[in-house]
Structures are given as structure tokens and as C-alpha cells.
Amino acid sequence: MPVPLLAASAPSIPSLSGLAAVRLLPAGISEISVFSPWAVRGIGVVALIAVLATAVLLWARIRPGRRRFPRALLLGTVLAVVLAQILVVSAIGARANARLGFVRTIGDVVAQIRGERAFADRGPAVISVPEEPTSVPAGPPATSPADAAEFTPIKGGSDYTGFSKATVTGRRSGVTQEVWVWTPRDYSPTDGATYPVFVMLHGDPGSPDGVVTAVKAASAMQAAIDSGRMQPAILVLPSLNADRRQTAMPDCADVVGRAQVGTWVQDDVPAIVRASFPNVSPNRSGWAIGGISSGGFCSTWTAIMRSDVYGYEIGMSGYDVPFTGAMSSSDELKRSNALSTLLRTRAHQSLRIWQMAAQDDSGTAELRANLPAAVPSTDTLEMVTPQSGGHSATLWRQTFPTALTWWGSQLKTPVAPDAPLSVPSAEPPSSAQQIHSPSGGDTATGAGDGSDTGARGTLQEMFTGIQGIGTIILAWIVALALSLAAIVPWRGGGIPGLRRRLRGLSGLLPGRARSAGAASADEPSRTGAAETREPHGAQESWDPLGAPEGSAEDPTPVASPDPGRSRTLRALLRGARPVGARLIVLALACVAGTLAIALVGNRIVNFFPTWSIAIQDLVLALP
């Protein structure tokens, strides 16, 4: 029976359930997909149209004869440029999301943006954990035929994918979510073989298909089997996004008043797999659980809590102390649910643990420092600590085959189903533990070795490193400069032309617009602009931001349109050239703005430590 744990909650603000939070948007809008191919293509098409329309607007704004509301025209073009950049950022983000499976609907996006603050509860958080075992279980958890689900193969063109999926409602948890299953080539439920099972959890935010893409799960599993590094096994990827609260701040345990994700992973998913694939391993000796990022934490937490279900754990870029969900809502819950604390203080059957944590991933520092010293004598740990790689899909993809090789070697002498319980200890154990020597210290492909030290190295990293504050500032300067270049009129003439542009911009200041126009009218020789007249003969005032676009050799605009077809065509061709130039500059401004935003986000979440790792991830996410 689950044991409730009580802890003080986060600061008291109005409670919002997942559905209530989405009521900030109309119900229909919140369910619009941002994940489907048509949605991604639609956002891309809208962004492209916006960029083209903005380029035309930028060119049309500086045609001669603009006398009405020049400041309003300027404001409109600035807003158009900003909107175009926002849409380009959204299009690139939608493409990456479609490949890596972060969020699925607009409501999920809102939940992620609002985060934990939107879902904070009044009063204390109450989590329920399984009772601590006092004896070795007599057998595996019971399974019923009612747990069986109909899995539909996922098509991949002419290629064999091996994946099938089903949307299942767990009988014990009540959670309704997708479960993905990969079976090896030539698998048959009646082939007489017994298949080990690897349950893999996604991160936050994430989804089963995102993990499949990030680690290239199918090819890695089949390659390990074909090479003999691992016996044929089944990979299971359950979705943990039980509702939008879980999408924004996932839990590993059951939390009172929330989706019972703990029971879903600990009981329902194993029961569904055993009932649907009758030739899987019947007990913990053939079952592993693992995950990436927050899934790496949850998989280790679950393995400790339910060592009667899982005998092996594989974590990639996890962490020691919970930082999201109900477990992070108080210092007490953080301390009691830290992995290093649970390993030594909670009785559990013997576990074999494999952990990967890059040395330049600051989020895994406590895990690398605390976990090896906390492993009891009944468990084993192999800690893989690459010198670099950060918190990236590139690193996960590179190390996933190593994890499979480790698991394959463990299955040759599997853990015992009835292994004895560990002895809880309030004190950290001595160093004489059964801990495998750290391995896998090679630098990830293309990553720097960090050999350049001292002031020179620090300065270089500041202005060339992907997380350097100087790099971020330079990216924003370039983005703003290109945006300004797309908006302001272009005039030739070298230094005199630059002075004219500066005088034109100064005319935007309050009280200077009229004087600027009058001054330019009095200096026709310096501006190179000829007087033009309107159809009714009234002389036109010169607008500093409405000056004709052209070169220094031909600054004079056409006085009036020519009705002839040939001259009209030539005029259109002459107009297309500046539109194309504006389009190029605007496109560069959008790319630079996207890069600047991405650099800020990367510095905040500390994902990519080097340019090479980021580029490899982009190649994966934006094919």
C-alpha cells in the first residue's frame, strides 16, 4: 500500500489544474496541434509569406511622394519586421519540435511557458510512494488478460521500423497514454524465445517518438543484437504526459490530486507489456528501466522504489536531487528523494546501475559526486563520465550503444529474481563498495578539450564559446543591426551619404521632423534629390525616411509612371532589384535573431557546451 509523504508546498497562489490553466485559451485553440506535418508546414508557409510581404512593404515605404504620417509608416514597418522574425523563430522551433517531440499542442506550449507557477497548489504537496519492502517478494506483480492492448505497427515506408504503438488506459492508475514498443527483426510472439525488456522514459518536455529520434533507438538496438553485444530484446517507451501539469512539471511518484504517473510506470506499463507480448521475461532478472534527462532521474528513482519489477537501470544525463514536480516543492522532499539518499536509506533488492553524466553538464555534478559513494554492497554502479558533450541529444545518441552493450553483458549473468534486500544506512557507506570503475571518458565528437586556460582562454571563450556572454551580445548586435538595415532607407555617397542618413534619422525626433524636411528642401545640391510636384501642382515635402531607394549615380526618382508596356516592365524590373536586396537583408536579420534567442535559451538551460555539439543536434532536428 502506498505510503503518503507530506511536505510544505511552494508559495501559495491560486490553484490551477491542467485544464484550468488551458482555459486561458479557448478550448479549440488549446488543442490545435503544433506537432503534425501539416502544422509544421503551415507555420513555415506563413513565415515565408510574412518575410516576402515585409520585404515588399519595406521597399514600398521608401518610394517617393510619401507625405502622410511618416512616423506611423515607420512604426508599421518595425512591427512588420518584428512579426516576420517571430514567425521565422516559430517555424524553426516547430520543425525542431516535430523531430524531437517536445510538445504536441498549443495548450502544451502554454503549459511549458507558464511552468510550475501556473500549476502550484495551495497547501502541502502529498506524494504516495510504495511501502518499503521488509522481505523478498514471492513472485512478480500479477498480470491480467485485461491489461492486453492492441498494438498497431508504425509504418516507415519500405523500411522495417519495428515499432508499434497503442493508446492504453492503465487499470490501476487511470492514466490514458501512448505506449510505443520496438521488437527486433523476425520477432514473433510464438517463436519460443524469451525476450528481456528495456523500458525507457523521455525527458521534460518530451515524448516517446522524440526519444526514438534523439538516440536513434531502432538502429542502435538492432545493431547491438546483430553484433552479438546484446541478446534480442524489446524496447518499451511509455508517454509520461498524462495531462498538461505533467507536461509542464512531471512527477515520478503518485501525487494526491494529480495523475498517478508512478503507478503507470511501476505497475501498468509492465502489466500491459506482459499481457500483450507473452514471451517477455517473467521477472526482474530480464527487466531494465532507463531514461534521458529528467527521465534518467525518474528511472533511477523508480528502480529503487520498485526493485521487485526492475533489476537494471540505465540513466543518461540525469540528476541526483529532484528539481521539478511535487518532489521539488520543499527542501524536505528534495532531501528524502535524492537518489544518493534513497540508495543507502531505502531497502531494495540488488540493482545493477549504469549512469552517464558529462563533466561539462552542470546539472549532473551532484549525481557524479554523490551517487558512487551511496551505492550499497548489494548493488553495482558503472559511472560513465565523458569529458564533454553537455546535455544534448548528440551525446545521448553517441552513448546509447555503450549502454546497450553494458546491459547485454549484465544479461549473461542476470540478477536473481529473489535477491536479498539491501541494509539501510543513515551514514554514507565506506569506499569499499562494489562500484565499477568510471569509464567512457572520451570527448564527444567535435568537442573541445578545454586545454586553453588562463585569462586569454577565458576571454576567447567569452567571445567565441556558444555560452559566452560576449558571443550572445555580438549575436544581438548583429541581429539588431541587420533589422535596422532592413528598415532604414539606403543612400549612396560614402561619408556624405552617411551624414545624410544620420540627418534623416534625426528628423524623427520630436520637433525636428519639419525642420529636417525644410532643410533638405533648401539643399538640393547636397541631397541630390530633384523637386517633384503632385498632380495638382502642390510642391511635395521631402521625407527623410521616405527618400527614394537607389544608388548615388542615379538618385533621382521617376517623376511619373510611364503608360507604355516596355517602360512599365523596366520599372518593375528596377523595383524587383531593391525588393530582392531588402529580402536578403531581412532574411539575414531573421536568422540572426533566431540565433540570438537560441543562444540565450542555451545559456539558461545549459544544454550545448560547444558549437560542434549544437550543430550536430541541429542536423538531427532540422533535416
Automatic annotation (TrEMBL):
InterPro entries per the UniProt record, alphabetical: AB_hydrolase_fold, Esterase-like, Mycobacterial_A85_antigen
Any matching Pfam family: Esterase
Compositional bias of kind Polar residues: 428-437
Transmembrane segments: 42-60, 72-94, 468-490, 579-601
Region (Disordered): 417-456, 512-565
Gene3D superfamilies xref list: alpha/beta hydrolase
SUPFAM superfamilies in the cross-refs: alpha/beta-Hydrolases
GO molecular function, one term: acyltransferase activity, transferring groups other than amino-acyl groups
Compositionally biased residues, Low complexity: 439-455, 512-521
Sorted UniProt keywords: Membrane, Transmembrane, Transmembrane helix
Protein name: Esterase
